[in-house]
Write a structure and sequence with these properties.
Elements: E1 16-22, H1 30-42, E2 47-51, H2 65-78, E3 90-93, H3 96-99, H4 111-122, E4 132-134, E5 140-144, E6 147-151, H5 172-184, E7 189-193, H6 207-210, H7 212-224, E8 229-233, E9 239-244, H8 246-249, E10 253-257, H9 268-271, E11 277-281, E12 286-293, E13 298-306, E14 312-321
Parallel strand pairs: 1-2, 2-3, 6-7, 7-8, 8-10
Antiparallel strand pairs: 1-12, 4-5, 5-6, 9-10, 9-11, 12-13, 13-14
Helix pairs in contact: 2-4
The structure holds fe (ii) ion (FE2).
Length: 323
């Protein structure tokens, strides 16, 4: 016997899902990663979403094509998430460090090989008429449990903040793909993104700060569609829950940021003022979301942020409904 794992099928037709969200998995924290993944497993999520920085390809040197593969292999060999006895169905997207380097975007020279590398490692194959479909870049749409999960690619098409034309976070093709998906059938939709959406308060690297006009444009499109939207993000190396005021989408929603399951922790909650913030914690963390689709245009949410030993940092219940 070389290895043994257990897995079971999921009932995709039920109208609720308990899922975990994690991001920012650095191999500089070998003493923490094991207990964090153990804590996550013990919360018993039915699915796991990894939303960026699954690997820090650029920790030790500037990334080239061989380094992309080598660094993913090193992370794979170390992290407990890849050695679970009982496998959790997992879907992933990337952020900058697994894409290839700090805050890179469409100018990155190895996008093609990085895409092949990432899709090989996460191995989330699409089959015809299945619940998972692929969009531009490494983006995916997963439809099940009366819900929709849009895993966005915030790197492949992203312009730098200083771009004088075509200032964009997702690129035109991915925006179109997102809106077509939301229009296809009304259902509560989690838009999952490596970078924060409403991270303007921090003045770095978010959709709102880097691509303000683009966000304003896509927000007006999202206001038009009938699927209610909840944002889920990573990147900031802190856990944060934001209330997004109804002036944005026409109804109140949330941005749930789960970042730094084992990575450098940002001492941000002392230094940034964010009027949208309901809760935050700077410590190793992951978030578990219990979502129940109450019809196509409303979802009930239970949101809990956890730390080491399953310590609860905050918990929040809410409904998001298209008015
Ligand atoms: Fe990160």
């Amino acid at each position: 016997m070389i290895d043994e794992r257990n897995f079971k099928s999921l009932d995709l037709d039920k109208k609720a899902l308990k899922f975990a969200v994690a991001s920012c998995m650095s191999d500089m924290f070998s003493n923490v990663q094991g207990e964090m993944w153990d804590a996550l497993v013990k919360t018993r999520p039915e699915m796991l979403f990894l939303i960026g920085d699954l690997c820090y390809t650029d920790t030790f040197s500037k990334t080239d094509e061989a380094q992309l593969w080598r660094r993913f292999a090193q992370s794979r060999n170390q992290f407990a998430v890849y050695k679970m006895k009982n496998l959790i169905p997992t879907l992933a997207t990337w952020d900058d460090h697994d894409f290839g380097g700090n805050n890179l975007g469409r100018e990155y020279q190895f996008i093609e090989s990085s895409t092949t590398n990432f899709m090989t490692y996460v191995a989330q194959d699409v089959w015809q008429n299945g619940p998972l479909s692929r969009g531009p870049g490494v983006s995916h749409c997963f439809e099940a449990f009366g819900l929709r999960f849009q895993l966005m690619d915030a790197r492949t098409f992203r312009s730098q903040r200083t771009a004088t034309n075509d200032n964009t976070h997702w690129g035109a093709a991915q925006e179109e793909w997102l809106l077509a998906s939301l229009d296809r059938e009304t259902r509560p939709t989690f838009i999952m993104n490596g970078s924060q959406i409403y991270g303007g308060y921090m003045q770095k690297d978010s959709y709102e700060f880097n691509h303000f006009e683009s966000l304003r444009r896509i927000t007006s499109e999202l206001r038009r569609v009938s699927s209610p939207v909840i944002y889920v993000s990573g990147d900031i190396h802190a856990s944060e829950l934001m209330r997004i005021e109804s002036e944005q989408l026409g109804y109140e929603t949330f941005e749930i940021t789960s970042s730094g399951i084992h990575s450098f922790i940002n001492p941000f909650d002392a230094s940034y003022v964010n009027p949208r913030r309901l809760a935050a914690k700077m410590d190793f963390n992951f978030t578990v979301i219990e979502a129940a689709a109450v019809g196509p245009d409303r979802v009930d949410l239970g949101i809990t942020a956890y730390g080491r030993n399953r310590k609860v940092f905050y918990t929040h219940t809410a409904s998001v409904a298209r008015g």
